[in-house]
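Checklist before submission:
- one chain only
- standard amino acids only
- sequence pasted in full

Submission:
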Amino acid sequence: MQGPLVLLVRHGETAGNASGRMQPPSEPLSSTGRWQAEKLGESLRAAETNGDFRIAVALVSDLMRTLETADGIFHAIGKTGRKIRNEPLLQERNFGDLRGQFYAEFTKKYGNVFAEDFAPPGGETWPQFRRRVAQAWSTIKDHALSLPPPQAGIPEPAAL
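Returned file contents:
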């Protein structure tokens, strides 16, 4: 018997992504991002129909764009018998004061903000981010391992 399946999904496009702006926490999906979430949901529904797996739970950060992505996916695959759980540990790296600004502007001032030694003003350093990611991955594994075991004729449960 296999272990649980975990699918990692990034949120859909935002206006910030499209314009080269580092998005703030409140940035919603664009119409393209909502379409992307719906299309991913349709693909996942097809995989479920084929018996490949069944999405049992979605762990999402508490950012609006991730909640909207999960909603779009679950709209396509159906919400019955599924859970969406907010997990703040899953937020992307916090770039603090740089959020809401354009990449072209702050790279002139700071250089490569993704460099190992860059500490964003008011944000997370790489070591802080890595510690949080390790905690998040542990949480994901715990949720995945708590899923019910597969039963004959029922697809493997999956965490999204």
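Reviewer check: The first helix runs from residue 15 to 19.
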